[in-house]
Amino acid sequence: MDFSVLRNLISRYCAGEEYWVDSRTVYIGHKEPPPAAEAYIPQRYPDNRIVSSKYTLWNFIPKNLFEQFRRIANFYFLLIFLVQLIIDTPTSPVTSGLPLFFVITVTAIKQGYEDWLRHKADCSINECPVDMVQQGTVVRTQSSKLRVGDVVMVREDETFPCDLLLLSSSHDDGTCYVTTTSLDGESSHKTYYAVPDTMDFKTEQKVDSLHATIECEQPQPDLYKFVGRINIYKEREDPIARSLGAENLLLRGATLKNTEHIYAVAIYTGMDTKMALNYQSKSQKRSAVEKSMNAFLIVYLCILISKAVINTVLKYAWQWSVDRDEPWYNHRTEIDRERHVVIRAFTDFLAFMVLFNYIIPVSMYVTVEMQKFLGSYFIAWDKDMYDEELGVGAQVNTSDLNEELGQEHEDLFFRALCLCHTVQVKEEETVDSIKRGIHLGKPTSFYISSSPDEVALVEGMKRLGYTYLRLKDSHMEILNKDDEIERFELLHVLNFDSVRRRMSVIVKSSSGEYLLFCKGADTSIFPRVVSGKVEQVRARVEQNAVEGLRTLCVAYRSLSPVEYEETCHQLDDAKLALQDREQRLAQAYDLIERDFTLLGATAVEDRLQEKAADTIESLQKAGMKVWVLTGDKMETAAATCYASKLFRRSTQILELTKKRTEEQSLHDVLFDLSRTVLRQRTLSGLSVECQDYGLIIDGATLSAVLKPSPESSGSGNYREIFLEISRNCSAVLCCRMAPLQKAQIVKLIKASKEHPITLAIGDGANDVSMILEAHVGIGIMGKEGRQAARNSDYAIPKFKHLKKMLLVHGHLYYVRIAELVQYFFYKNVCFIFPQFLYQFFCGFSQQPLYDTAYLTLYNISFTSLPILLYSLIEKHISIETLKRDPTLYRDVAKNSLLRWPVFLYWTCLGLFNACIFFFGAYFLFDNTTFTSNGQMFGNWTFGTLVFTVLVFTVTLKLALDTHHWTWINHFVIWGSLLFYVIFSLLWGGIIWPFLNYQRMYYVFMQMLSSGPAWLGIILLITISLLPDVVKKVLCRTLWPTATERAQSNRPCLTVELSTIFVLTQSDNRLSF
């Protein structure tokens, strides 16, 4: 009896539990393995449906309501509405329920519409046709019906429907070309490989006869990592095991290029694909405006509770005397009299809460959401931020090469650069339907690669007489300067990674010699060199770095047959490992890449993007502290900073680097630098000319600064000292940074005592963690790929567009939304404080001052549209002025328009206006025969008069704050006032049959028929607006801001530095 099946089964469920969890087995074509091979255990995997939508038809209402009522304002108004339903309150439940219903409905419609668009996008993807191989024939089916183990055929220019393992292609060498633009934005062609044992299965019948299983890791989001093993079963032979890596895996969303067709097997489907795992929702960022709104909301909630408590206490104090039970028209029932006093007091407290609850502006949140949603289109529509070259504009959600070659071991050096790369040669006349590589009417070859640097170096060799021809039958062919073709068998490729910072190839020459060629960063090559003109090359590399060139060193090693066999054994063992493959490969590479002979060095020039220096200079003038975070070496990064005017020739550079900390302790270096900058700050306080400082820190030193140690605990926190030094420098350069360190820098600055607003901008995948960490993340849609743009809050085509994004759109957007927030609180104070004062004149009986219709429509209809339009189109200063004078940005930095003094001014202005409304109308009503016919005004007429003055005052206040007038402003502002008048005439001029009361009948018309009422309305509006006008005139005359001076075409004042912003530099071109 064969116990192998039982043994494998037990090992999976028992001893191999970790193996079972961390890996999956895929049966190609759903064929069972041979009985003696392993147990056949069908595993359940998700189907190939992509689901990016948030809701379904059945869960939309409960799920959306739950999410909306998590917002404190919505939940508060829900409680108020329930209180109105449960107890006897002075106002109808409609007054709270209708605004809440409006807010909830508008938000639900917006979110439902957005989710419906996601559903449509999902359906279009899931219903895409796919060619699947079944029983030796090609069958067309829908993408959603694919399952793990299905074999599919993909044709040129088609998108891969799921994550596929390449089995064979139309090319004889089993390669195919792929673009991953939709994944990371890289439009260059990448090469993927089929394993040698399956590359000959080129027809449907042959592929259907393939008998194999794949063991691979469980789904994980890293686009560039895949570990697996394929076991190929043949009759009467032992199974063949081959390692699988990222070079064999075709990712969903990528597109097949310049390859007629391929056959591949589905490995990960649906939400298990790497694309789906990478597009998980990001953590929600909260703006400073939203934080201020929540803080102001808490203050107003406390005011509301205080009002309710004061009125409740005063009511019972006023009723303490027996003869003041309650007003004659509002006697309590016997049931009320028998209740315990605490219960009655609590009920009255809730009633007052309901009466004053309108001080909390529930509609402010929906208005802010609409302003954000509609305002984002102004950025997308900005023609100045459209790039003709890329054909894209800004999104709300972002090189010229010259080479200089060393001359050591010239021939071998040139051969090394012709062989040590992953460049592919394209000879066809058209690529992606575009004619390329045509010379004198005949097609010629050209190079494609995932790295533009590699293409530049290979093309440079071609100009120097060494032409890389092709990779054919695992042989690399070179045409040397004597027009002779040299063939080298490509044995192994040791791919580049960011940790090693180098790549290598092992080739076999026609003479049988084994050679290992390696190129990489100087810091990764020089320690492994044992011969060659090291000092001469090192000096040249340092000189090139100072000039701003990006350098690579090239070396080689000759291998004996025994060393080569040992190398193959090490690589094969590491590649076949399912667990810790990357670590084992790194160990193998470390053992192989050593004992080099240095050949020389290359240098590639990165030119600044258009107007990059002007943009940096403008940001600094705007008061922003610029930090450059890059992976480049210090000399290269510093030269780039000088070129971009971040550092100037007068800037004194302070170095906090590994080289310096090796000479003296980190503690001493930090305190020396701290004394230097603090001494300068003391001198600046004595009006001595200031020295401009720039700080440079490298990744190794940063790790030491951030790492807690016993020394730091005893002598102060290194982080705080580092931040203190940085604060006193005009710019900071962080070089040799890993992606995680970039995010750590941003997090460190965010947590500093100033709590500055941080902005991170980058164009590469290595910038994503930093972009996600910053308060605002901006991606550049450049040649580095679009992964940064996809994960950003905003995306721009070029770095130069950052200037207008911040100095114009950012400035205007902040002024608009700050006015919106302050105005909402102001108009609600004006609205509800007269109601509070009215209680002192009605025996605290909870009698409403305003009619139910006015309570309901005040925030929804009468005062909502003017402020919404203001928040969308207001321009307090021209766009040209904002672009010309970056210092104007300082007036709005550090959340200056939403600080507590400004908030208190708006609140006090609202209280003053409310007192004018109420007491002005009260003193006018002191003459009870106010109408021409001698008829007395009642309480509803009094409330209507107060409400009329209120609506006109708050609307005219906004008109006074408006600087940019268009016909739309006039239409909305005067139209809102006209709508109020017409509504009041209709509401009080008709007996509405659906109302159980007619208390407002003829009230508004009676009020307007009185001449003193007209005079009173005009007088009260004028008195209410006068203090704000006087304040503005005095401030503009005596203490004008830079913006106000610019509005008057006067020179701007200088203001001290404000918000710190974090910007980034790409690793291969300057893209802050």
From TrEMBL:
Keywords: ATP-binding, Cell membrane, Endoplasmic reticulum, Endosome, Lipid transport, Magnesium, Membrane, Metal-binding, Nucleotide-binding, Phosphoprotein, Translocase, Transmembrane, Transmembrane helix, Transport
Localization terms from the record: Cell membrane; Early endosome; Endoplasmic reticulum membrane; Membrane
Domain named P-type ATPase A: residues: 130-215
This enzyme's EC code(s): 7.6.2.1
Record-linked Pfam families: Cation_ATPase, E1-E2_ATPase, PhoLip_ATPase_C, PhoLip_ATPase_N
GO molecular function, one term: ATP binding
Domain P-type ATPase C-terminal: 789-1041
Cofactor(s) the protein needs: Mg(2+)
GO CC aspect terms: early endosome; endoplasmic reticulum membrane; plasma membrane; recycling endosome
Alphabetical list of SUPFAM superfamilies matching this protein: Calcium ATPase, transduction domain A (SSF81653), Calcium ATPase, transmembrane domain M (SSF81665), HAD-like (SSF56784), Metal cation-transporting ATPase, ATP-binding domain N (SSF81660)
Reaction(s) catalysed (UniProt annotation): a 1,2-diacyl-sn-glycero-3-phosphoethanolamine(out) + ATP + H2O = a 1,2-diacyl-sn-glycero-3-phosphoethanolamine(in) + ADP + phosphate + H(+); ATP + H2O + phospholipidSide 1 = ADP + phosphate + phospholipidSide 2; a 1,2-diacyl-sn-glycero-3-phospho-L-serine(out) + ATP + H2O = a 1,2-diacyl-sn-glycero-3-phospho-L-serine(in) + ADP + phosphate + H(+)
Transmembrane segments: 295-318, 349-368, 853-873, 903-925, 937-959, 971-995, 1001-1026
Binding site for Mg(2+): D763, D767
Membrane topology recorded in Swiss-Prot or TrEMBL: Multi-pass membrane protein
Sequence similarity: Belongs to the cation transport ATPase (P-type) (TC 3.A.3) family. Type IV subfamily.
Name used for this protein in its record: Phospholipid-transporting ATPase
Organism: Hucho hucho (huchen)
Lineage: Eukaryota, Metazoa, Chordata, Craniata, Vertebrata
